[in-house]
Amino acid sequence: MSRLALPTLIALILAGLWGAGLGFAHWRGNLWFLDRVEATMTDLRTLVRGTAKPPELMTIVAIDDDAVRQEGAYPLSRATLARLVDAIARLGPKAIALDLLLVDPGAKDNDDALARSLSGGASVIAAAAVYPGGKQWTLGEGPIAGVPNAERFLWPLKAFSDVAAVGVVNVATDKTGTPRFVPLLFRAGDRLEASFPLRVAAVAAGEDPEIAADHLSLGGRSIRTDIGHILPLTFYGPRGTIRTISAATVLDGRFDPGTIRDRIVVIGATATGTGDVFPTPFDPILPGVEVISTAIAHLMAGDAIVRDQHVRLADAGFAVVLPMILVGLLAWRRNAGGLAAIAGVILIWFVVNMTAFSHHIWLSAALPMTAAVPPAILYGAMQLWLGRSRAQFFATQSQLLQRVEAPGMGEWLAKHGDFLSDPVRVDAAILFIDLSGFTGLSETLGPVATRELLNGFHALVGEEVTSCGGVVTNFMGDGAMILFGLPEPATNDAFNAARCCVGLSSRTNDWLGSLPASTASRLGFKIGAHHGTIVASRLGSEGRQHIAAIGDTVNVASRLMEIAADQNAEVAVSDIMLDAAGRECALFQSGTLKGPVETQIRGRSGSLAIWLWQSARTLQ
């Protein structure tokens, strides 16, 4: 065997093994880190496919702005809901589904009226699953190990659940908030409950579903499901694609009875401000009732997109074959002809993938890309001298890193060049630190001494923030704005921010102690910390950009520095921030923490619960 053939054979074997490993993990449902890429690719394929005509058997009765205006309040009273259910039931629908949580008691007469209305026909009402720590899936063994595991269920009032079927209404979303799946089963301990869409479909079909390992049978159809008995969602179009009529017109009798008769009628809220909306490929604010209705339509019409163990096995096959083909083509021709052949293979794979998607088969896009790209790049690097290319790559990295003034972001920016090219909303912890008395001191120090003083302060802030996992988004003279939640939000952002508060206090006190007494005596510092939603983006020109974070959370954190200064405390932290950080955070473990105290924040209506923290050193 030639010297050239042996490395190629080894590369082919390694590429196949790499793809096989990824394919096996995907078949088991363990490639969660590819979900974001797969979600983006799925949205693109959905948009390329275009809108689709939903089944005629669905009608949404929307509690919209007109209905709320007519009622004069939201939510609608139970008496009004009873009239609405009665008006629908008189026309003989297949099923009436209330996508509403009826968990709190109302006026007894009104509750009794709604219970009587629900008992008069085939009706389904919603329950909700509450998850421990917001985590839907937990590891386990047995046939229901992959079923979402709830801590408990929020069950409707007994008066309603006694006369109507009940289903769990939760959906499964990706990190962008887009609903991707509807779990058909839920569990809480040993208790197993059907989902709201499955319960509605069963009531409409007049039979209980038969559930197998990878499919369920309902109404004479076999509906294939993914791991954990989940039903993948594919949306028909934007808001209103599924027939929607206003609850106000139903109550007034101003509607076509044909939109109700022999159809599944789903009652749900679409009024402005109700909050039950989701982003989808076609619409950034699709009402939750339309998401639920989409799942019901999939179950009744059998038009859901399919991803089950058989499809996952096909994905695994692509993950093995595609990287081996690309490596083989690179070995065959390392010129324009070879690149053209590689482009042709990728195009064929894309056509196959898109064709399958348009025929309701969800082949993975992220898995073959992840399987094929690294081996092809590595093999190409082994075959070619990449000195000049690597120099250009590092030059590009350097140029990119110089465009953004945010210590702690270098490694991330080197890998994600388009980071924050579009604004994003994230939950984050925001810290502000500022030196007290610096302005007056700088007038007497002169420019050189002032610069040296600031350099020392900026250096300690940057080091401490980076060690705690945060990002300095801006140095503002003698102060700094610090963010925990970029480049990606994490569950321990607030915890790390609390640790940073204590660390900054300690290091700043040490730094002040190292200064001449005449300087240190005129300086102090204060820190403000808050947690909440921010909008992060890039600002500036192409030649020079910086990361900016805006929102009420940022404003409150800045104002908390003033409160710290007024109360002679080192740190002023909101109760929201401490709650997010937890009782084990550094602010509870060291120094003295006093509060909470309801405090008015300058420029903001209402008050906020504030805690004040002082290090043990300053209390001595």
UniProtKB/TrEMBL annotation:
Q: Which keywords does UniProt give here? A: Membrane, Transmembrane, Transmembrane helix
- Which part of the chain is the Guanylate cyclase domain? 429-561
- List membrane-spanning regions: 313-332, 339-356, 362-382
* Keyword Membrane included in the entry's annotation: yes
Q: Which residues form a coiled coil?
A: none
Gene3D superfamilies (alphabetical) = Nucleotide cyclase
Q: Which PROSITE patterns match?
A: GUANYLATE_CYCLASE_2
State the name under which the record lists this protein: CHASE2 domain-containing protein
